[in-house]
Design a protein that fits this description.
The chain is an all-alpha fold. Helix content is 71%, strand content 0%. It has one domain (4-473): Amino acid/polyamine transporter I (Up-down Bundle). Helix 5 (80-113) crosses helix 13 (331-344) and helix 9 packs across helix 15.
Length: 474
């Protein structure tokens, strides 16, 4: 396949890949859980994280459009080792995040056939494993098919059901129906005397992650300098509007004490549609929702793996792991990823409740992902000083003060998110708090250490090779 023939993605495909990766309807229950104060944290998260991550991604993608995404950017700023750490964080957080995404699929299916299954851990684990393997095998057919699949799923499974949820919520409020939340200033103001309220920021920031995901396919884009800024601008506006209104539509109808993180969308739709005597539509809409989730899953399976493949190739590590098939997909890496996700699905068997399993994986995902964002925001600042001569088709306005303000805001929010990830929310039974924090700390350590082991192993291998060469020459 020639380089020219691989340029198959335009602005629309980038926008749909970004929107379906970030703007997932399955994120809404995690935001809605915190009631009216979510509006405050949503605005903070959007202004200090979503917008900065989109602006930084657009500048870096148009300045360094070589395929590789965050690995290339951090490598240019701080070297290959830091680049590997950044792409590892992006890849491993996805591996941990997949079971939460897939559990949403399982919960939605349960509500279509048998709602009681949504709380059955063995059922959830079985659906998680089966679905992930099916979509992984689909992605072995290459980025062109993956992009088409994501665009189709985004239109059918995100725009339509998200619009339906928002419309039902607006109509419910306008008709003066009973509300589970209130929209006065006293209710919307967060209670900062309650430390657990900050936990809502973790859920919201995680829901905004992924603006950089499509940049890993730069060499497949027709005109990166033009298409990336246009696609990301549209994505930010669409995501901000739909996520806020969608979460509020759930919060007004389902109390936070009854809201399930796995099947909250199904709960809300059932209440809304039954009230209007059209409950038969619930399974139909949930099928559409599942299409949207599958499109999001497809994006995340291939993009971080492509980035990790580029990093390992660049560092000349584990060549057998990154071999490509005829569709230019690193087959062994995709397969190993599926094996790890299968093992992680066992978390649902170990925790006291489905919500607890879901939250722990969500919080750990957010913490690891913030490690990547810290490096990405720092790289954007560093490259303004170290590589000012590089042409960026999009440049964050305001010169050096502008890049410090924008990237600095994202950097600070990323650090705060890591810290508050160790505080469990009051509304979820995670068991003993010390046990929860021990699981979080242990998991974060174990998931962060592999890049350092890989690099130490590589350096030791190089030293041994050098020593052997010297001995042979002597």
């Amino acid at each position: 396949m020639t380089s020219t023939s691989r340029h198959t993605i335009g602005a629309f495909s980038i926008a749909m890949m970004t929107v379906t990766s970030v703007d997932s309807i399955r994120n809404l229950p995690a935001i809605a859980l915190f009631g009216t104060p979510l509006i405050f944290f949503f605005i903070i998260g959007a202004l200090c994280f979503l917008v900065p991550s989109a602006m930084v991604s657009a500048e870096l993608a148009t300045g360094w459009s070589k395929t590789g995404g965050v690995y290339i950017w951090v490598k240019e700023a701080f070297g290959k080792k830091s680049g590997l750490l950044a792409i590892w964080f992006q890849w491993i957080e996805n591996v941990i995040w997949y079971p939460t995404l897939l559990s949403f699929i399982a919960g939605s299916l349960a509500y279509i056939f048998s709602p009681s299954l949504a709380a059955n851990k063995y059922y959830l684990m079985s659906v998680i494993v089966a679905t992930f393997w099916i979509v992984s095998l689909l992605n072995l057919r290459g980025i062109k098919l993956s992009a088409k699949f994501s665009s189709f799923c985004g239109m059918l499974g995100l725009v339509v059901p998200m619009s339906m949820v928002i419309l039902l919520g607006v109509v419910w409020v306008m008709l003066g129906k009973p509300l589970q939340i209130h929209f006065n200033m006293a209710a919307m103001a967060p209670n900062f005397h309650d430390p657990s309220i900050l936990v809502s920021l973790t859920a919201i920031v995680l829901c905004f992650c992924g603006m950089e995901i499509a940049t890993v396919h730069s060499q497949n884009v027709r005109n990166p300098e033009r298409d990336y800024p246009r696609a990301l601008k549209f994505s930010v506006i669409f995501i901000m509007i739909t996520m806020l209104l969608g979460a509020l539509a759930i919060a007004v109808i389902v109390s936070n004490s009854q809201l399930s993180l796995v099947s909250g969308i199904s709960q809300a739709l059932q209440i809304y549609l039954n009230a209007y005597h059209i409950g038969w539509l619930t399974p139909v809409i949930m099928v559409l929702v599942l299409f949207g989730i599958l499109g999001s899953l497809s994006n995340w399976i291939i993009a971080p793996s492509r980035g990790l493949q580029i990093a390992l190739n660049d560092l000349k590590i584990f060549p057998s792991l990154v071999k490509e098939n005829r569709f230019h997909v690193p087959t062994p890496l995709i397969i190993y990823q599926a094996i790890i996700v299968t093992l992680l699905a066992c978390v649902f068997l170990l925790m006291p409740s489905v919500n607890a399993s879901y939250w722990i994986l969500t919080a750990m995902t957010a913490q690891l992902y913030m490690g990547m964002y810290i490096l990405m925001f720092a790289a954007a600042i560093a490259l303004r000083y170290r590589r000012p001569e590089v042409t960026r088709a999009y440049r964050i306005p305001g010169g050096k003060p502008g890049i410090w303000i924008v990237a600095g805001a994202g950097f600070i929010i990323s650090i705060i998110t890591i810290i508050i990830g160790f505080f469990p929310p009051d509304g979820i039974n995670v068991g003993n708090v010390w046990r929860y924090e021990a699981i979080m700390a242990t998991g974060l350590f174990l998931m962060s250490i592999p890049p350092f082991i890989i690099l130490a192993w590589q350096e030791r291998k190089q030293v041994n090779a050098t020593e052997s060469s010297i001995l042979e020459n002597n």
